Amino acid sequence: MDLRKLLEEVKDNNIGVEDALCQLKNLPYEDLGYANIDHHRELRNGYPEVIYCEGKSDEHIIGIIEKMNEKKYNILGTRCRKETFEKIKKIYSNAEYEELSRILKIKNDNIRNKGKGKILIVTGGTSDIAVADEAYYTAEFLGNEVERVYDVGVAGIHRLLNKRHLIQSARVIIAVAGMEGALPSVVGGLVDVPVIAVPTSVGYGANFKGLSALLTMLNSCASGISVVNIDNGFGAGYLASMINKLK
Fold it and tell me: Which residues form the signal peptide (predicted)?
């Protein structure tokens, strides 16, 4: 709920006090029995609550969306099954789905707080794209200009260096890599902006499902690198958006 807009409506006599109280009665959260929707999230953090769809039933996801849609939130869902989206699409015609990243989007309002610069997402390999796209569509949904440079890993570092003009034009960079996870260190040595490292579970046995990449990134000798959890493209896109909107 946009509290500022509601207060302005009351001030301009477009809505009565009793109607406003009815809209406010479910603040700060709404208990659905199976979920507590945090209606104060946007007021505190700048963005509405995001739905993590994995592990939730279709009925619960649709129920949460129904209540959020009543408030005209922009709704973002991560790790959404395609079958779930198809059910949602029958109810909400403006719902969109990004199949590779499993991102669900329902836009109900214009983003007012736009990013100040460009977020660039780079990947080590093509196998990292699903995680990178989760970051891409998250950052884009939150009101940022986002660009992608994929498959520029350190095994062919000339590919990365050939994109140096793009890398150095970004305000925030998200570096996504599996295997040994060296990409963020290389990128971090080329720029003077924050680099968000995303380890992926891509790799053979000793990669330990992303643990080797995670440890490499945590031990990076390049300064200015932060690290999110394994395969957490959403977390990287969200953090990049917060940085990009700082004055």
Answer: none
> Facing residues of 52 across strands?
78
Sign of the four-CA dihedral 184, 185, 186, 188:
positive
The tokens describing 247, both together, are 């004055």
Residue 212 has which token pair? 């080797």
| DSSP per-residue letters across 201-224 | S-SSGGGGGGHHHHHHHHT-SSSS
In contact, 122 and 175? CB cutoff 8 Å = yes
Interior angle at CA 137, CA 131 and CA 139, nearest 5: 105
Q: Tell me which CATH code domain 118-244 carries.
A: 3.40.50.1970
Closest CA to 187 of 147, 212, 215, 221: 221
User: Is the separation of the CB atoms in 179 and 151 below 8 Å?
Assistant: no
pLDDT at 4: 73
Tokens of 94: 């403006």
Query: Which residue from 148, 160, 140, 157 is spatially nearest to 241, judged by alpha carbons?
Result: 140
In terms of Cα–Cα distance, which of 64, 112, 126 is closest to 245? 112
Contact present, 152 and 122 (Cβ < 8 Å)? yes
Backbone φ and ψ for 244, nearest 5 degrees, come out as -70, -20
* Chain segment 122-173, per-residue pLDDT in tens: 999 999 999 999 999 999 999 999 999 999 999 899 999 999 999 999 999 9
* 200 φ/ψ angles, rounded to the nearest 5 degrees: -115, 165
Round to whole Å and give the CA distance between 82 and 95: 12
Q: How far is the C-alpha of 14 from the C-alpha of 6, rounded, in Å?
A: 9
Q: For the sheet containing 51-52, what is the strand order?
A: 51-52, 75-78, 103-106, 95-98
